[in-house]
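Entry 0007
Protein: Microbial-type PARG catalytic domain-containing protein
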Amino acid sequence: MGRTEKSQGLAPPAIRKDVRAKQARHIVNKVIPGILASNARARKGVEGSELVVDPGPGYVRAQREREREREKEKEKEQGGTKKHDAAVDEANRVKRKGQGRRRVRVDVAPADQMSSAQTPADKAPTPAPTHAPQQAPPKIRIVVTDTLTAASTLVPPHRHAHTRTRTRTRTPQNPCILNMASPLRPGGGLLTGATSQEEFLCSRTTLLPSLNDTFYRLPPRGAIFTRDVLVFRDRRGLDDSRGALAVGERFYVDVVSAGMLRFPDLEGGVGGAGGMRWGERDRGVVRAKMRAVMRVAVGKGAGRLVLGAWGCGAYGNPVVDVAEAWRAVLLPCSCAVGSRGRGKVEEEVEVWEGLEEVVFAISSETMAREFAGAFGGVEVEQAPRILVREDDEGVDEVAEELRAKIAEMEGQVEKVWNAELKQRMSVILEGLRAQLREREGERPDSDHEERSSEAGGLGLSDDEVDVEHYSSDG
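Output (structure tokens):
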């Protein structure tokens, strides 16, 4: 029983980080350009990415109106093509006169006569969508998995990248995912071997080329929207050849990339990271960010959305507060802004028209349970595990990464003189230690080397973790 060969030890964290950086550079410089050169849909999505700054409450309605106008233009173009095809068929019938059985001729009225022959219901303009309060809230799911695995469950089998359809009906919308992005540079620390959620996405999809340098620094309220991002790898490590998806297994997603609040001012309270909670100012800032993300996603037609524990982990945002903020933004009810025993301020919540399902993809089971509690006890689902390579069994690389990150931050805390900043960093450090304790309590056959980073950004980019960032001024 048991293993027949000794497990291979891991290289030091610095060496493994360099290996990841080399693999990421190969994907960015070779793999992704090759895919875009041969895939017009993904290339068009990259070229059409846009930065949306501070979308207001009317953004969704304006985008829906614009989309309807585009659909009308497409219908006109298709109508002209149909009339041309009918004329060609008529000419062919005349040429074949007397040669065998003739097809029955169907007279097609001119376009102006067709419009006059329409029923009153056909003539009536399509009513503009309204924010109907009676609309059912979206279905909320919480799944212990990564973002791309959750998105793949929302793609119907016939919607994968290899499928071609000849119908003229409107193509169903891609699932939309939130890229918990670095606000400072495209892809965060992808090219330096970082392993947070954004780096995970950019090394497995065609997202990175759409994050134009001119979009940065990202606005406090706003996002980059990219349509038709092609997913070409699963959640396995970049050095695992089995992680490459076959052409028939690839699929498209739409992506909203936005930056989260970092190192908030925390106040004493019950629950949260080390018993600390957001102040009223930071709570309002985060909810405004979340509303901006939702307006962009829903305005672009998202019906199924994958979110996460945005800003939890190394950014120092309390899990409970993030979960409650998402609930306040998502659910169509009046929610209490101040809920600590003081006066409750009622806040009107927008209704997200057309949004049917929201999946929170959270790799940390502890965080997932906290989210479930904030959403009224939603059942926490477990995603199917992907088997690791045989030579990695019994080796927990995530725990090693956590230990390295803890040691790094402990050294940084010692060099900080500002008491307030040192307290914030200590809270983050305690959160990393809690993740390590949880990790050491799990089964040893963990399935993904970057799993804990998906929970909300374990690994910060180099521009976000260096000692210079933690200046004495705070």
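Curator remark: The longest helix spans residues 59-95. The chain has a mean pLDDT of 76.
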